[in-house]
Design a protein that fits this description.
Length: 136
């Protein structure tokens, strides 16, 4: 049962990752210029999210910890910030940082359930921020 729940959660996370990316790809054309360097960071985020998923699946907590740290660095990089961010963007960006800190802590504690939940929360934040960008 526990394994079943875990696989279902991982499957849901996988779907979230895929859908948040394919949707943000659609509207790439509009806002390009200022976001060019941002895009590289975002692509790397996707790589880190996959590593985290892999780490959680294989109980490789080192991998999860490393990627959580990388996510924190990415979200602190200057180019992560957009021109004239809205208060909501700022808030989502801050949530993202806090969630990746939680993930790092839980991975170090080898608390797989908490870490899994952090991954889901991070995914929701990815999707919320992209949704927010589409609406702006
Ligand atoms: C606080 C806001 C915010 C958060 C959180 C966020 N992103 Fe983004 N993301 C952006 C912005 C801004 C863009 C550029 C506009 C666009 O393409 O939608 C973007 C674009 C992307 C792109 C497309 C890059 C390209 O080549 O066009 C990917 C992939 C991406 N994000 C992945 C992620 C992943 C994975 C997460 C979560 C781990 C995440 N993002 C979280 C703001 C955010």
């Amino acid at each position: 049962m526990r394994f079943f729940v875990r696989s279902m959660t991982l499957a849901a996370v996988g779907i979230l990752i895929v859908s948040s990316v394919s949707r943000s790809q659609d509207q790439k054309d509009d806002q390009s210029e200022t976001l060019a360097s941002n895009q590289l960071l975002m692509k790397d985020k996707l790589v880190q999210m996959n590593r985290i998923l892999e780490g959680l699946t294989l109980d490789d907590f080192d991998k999860v910890t490393k990627s959580a740290k990388t996510l924190q660095m990415i979200s602190k990089a200057a180019s992560w910030h957009i021109v004239d961010p809205s208060p909501r963007y700022e808030r989502l960006s801050k949530n993202f940082q806090e969630q990746s800190l939680d993930l790092e802590r839980h991975a170090k504690d080898q608390n797989i359930d908490a870490a899994m939940l952090d991954l889901v929360r991070l995914n929701v934040t990815c999707a919320q921020c992209h949704q927010h960008m589409r609406e702006e």
